[in-house]
Amino acid sequence: MVKQCGVGFGSLAFAAFLSLPGPGYAACHGPKALSDQLQAHPTTDNAVLMGSWFAGHKQFECAVITFRGALKRDPGSAQLHYLTGLALLGEERTADAVSEVRESSRLDPQVIKPHLLLATVYDQSGKYDEADQEWRAALAIDPKSNQALEDFSASLLRRKDYADVIGLLTKAPRTEKLAIHLSQALGELNYLNQAAAVLTEALQLSPDSLDLPKAMTVVLVKMHQYEQAATLAQTTADAHPDSMDAKLDLFRILVLTSHYDQARPLAPKLLAWHPHDPDILYLCGIIERIDGKLELAKAHLQESVALNPDFFDSRYHLGVVLVLSHEWKAAEEQLEKAIVLNSPVPEVHFELAKALRGLGQTERAMQEVKKYQDLKKAEETSLEASAAAGQGDKALDDRKISVAVQRYREAVDKEPGNPIYHYKLSVALRESGDAAGERAQLEETIKIDPRVAAAQNELGFLFARAGDGNGAVEHFRLAIQAAPQWTDPWINLAGELAVMGQYADARAAVAKALALDPSNAEARELNDQLAHDPAAQSTPPPGN
Fold first, then answer.
1. E strands, 138-218, where?
2. CATH number of the domain at 1-142, out of 1.25.40.10, 1.20.120.80, 3.90.1150.10, 1.10.10.10?
3. Are 341 and 310 in contact (CB under 8 A)?
């Protein structure tokens, strides 16, 4: 059973402890009943009640004084150290807080809250190795802790460690947040069918969710299934008629998939609901531009840009309106800022060319047209490659291996610099029995991007099968380097090291695998084998 740290300042969320502290209190005066009770019976429980009252009223200095006074009487209380740490965080004394929470964790290492709190503090400070260690410690206590899995995967997503997210969450429960995090990681690596499957499973478990359909529409749009995305958004809005958020999600997908007739009736309702929301203003501006209401579109888009100046698409659409209004200089400014903000829309260069022509800058305009043409061609090729890869995914799922190989080859031919397409082709070739072709595609994958952990891991298998232990170990280590939270390469590394007689390192690797996934049957079996193998036991563990 997972142990908790007891009372936590009246169940205030961690974010509340990081609010600005109240003024200093030279004399700490809490409720008379609590004060009298603590004075008459100076127990840890009474100190917790009194200190938690102070913290709940943002009198963090008084909370610290109360908890530390109690610690003089009960220095071994893990709960008091934890609560002192929380109060110190309220005072923004992070270093002191970490020291207290670490002491709490040392005194009672099976309590999960200190590990979760330390992970959050380390993560916010950019100390990711320390944060990851604390999240792993929390998951060792409770492998299904939603908070640990949610916070850990969210941090990995922010760091763009998509392979680690997949390794962490593949076997996790399909809760809303966890399913969305997993689908985002899969989507970023272009495993769109798998992302859709994860969200479909989660939707079956949480049919009333609003966030899951929203995530699914993102995946469907990436798969260029615009009609299905619009239909899903409409179905969700119909099922939640009182939810303006659902209406906004529907409005967004309708506008961005050019379903303007269906979107138009929603615009005034949403503007009345949130008249100064930058997203609503920008979407309304697009419809108003389509309807020829240029002044109204301009006003709404300008306000959207003022509210959210770093969003490339609102600047792009404002630039389009300014081009239509022949406001060439203002249009040039907005379109160039959209480009600086990494607008992925090739048309931004075409619109900029129009503005430059209006300003008499013909040569620059021609350069922008050329950029537009090149980007448009690359975009079309990428769409064709994506479609071929999607067909390959379906064929592979249906066990039509020869069709999958053909479709993946088409994707690779159209977009040879995409490492994921080469990896997918390697999987299909493996299924077809073409070991040489599989290896060639895996090597091409890591040549393009050595951080594709699955390719490194599979190459390790091929080297091991060929009897090249050193080559296998190298690739397993590279897989670990690319995805340190993924258990499989740690197990594979341990197995290959054991085969090579490097037992100390093998035990260290399998211990790492078990730290990541204590219930992993394969890791447990290998660990047992190493524990009972006389040859393995003759080699001392690392560090001895």
1. none
2. 1.25.40.10
3. yes
Pair of tokens at residue 188: 């970023």
Q: Please, what sign has the CA dihedral across residues 378, 379, 382, 383?
A: negative
Residue 185 in tokens? 């990681």
| pLDDT band at residue 18 using 50, 70 and 90 as cut-offs | very low
Euclidean distance between CA atoms 427 and 431, whole angstroms: 6
Q: Could you tell me how many residues make up the chain?
A: 544
Overall average pLDDT of the 200-204 stretch? 96
* Confidence grade of residue 544 (pLDDT, cut at 50, 70, 90): very low
User: Across all residues in the chain, what is the average pLDDT?
Assistant: 90
pLDDT tens per residue, range 73-86: 999 999 999 999 99
Residue 391 pLDDT exceeds 60: yes
pLDDT value of position 312: 95
Residue-wise pLDDT for 488-538, tens only, equals: 999 999 999 999 999 999 999 999 998 888 878 899 999 999 888 777 666
Q: What contacts 28, CB < 8 A, 6 or more positions away?
A: 54, 59, 61, 62, 65, 66
Specify the domain boundaries for CATH 1.25.40.10 within the chain: 1-142, 369-449, 453-544
Can you state the angle between helices 521-532 and 487-499, rounded to 10 degrees? Answer: 20
Q: 359 and 322 in contact (C-beta within 8 Å)?
A: no
Q: Which residue has the tokens 């997918």?
A: 424
Whether CATH 1.25.40.10 fits 369-449:
yes
Domain 453-544 annotated CATH 1.25.10.10: no
Distance CA 473, CA 493 (A): 6
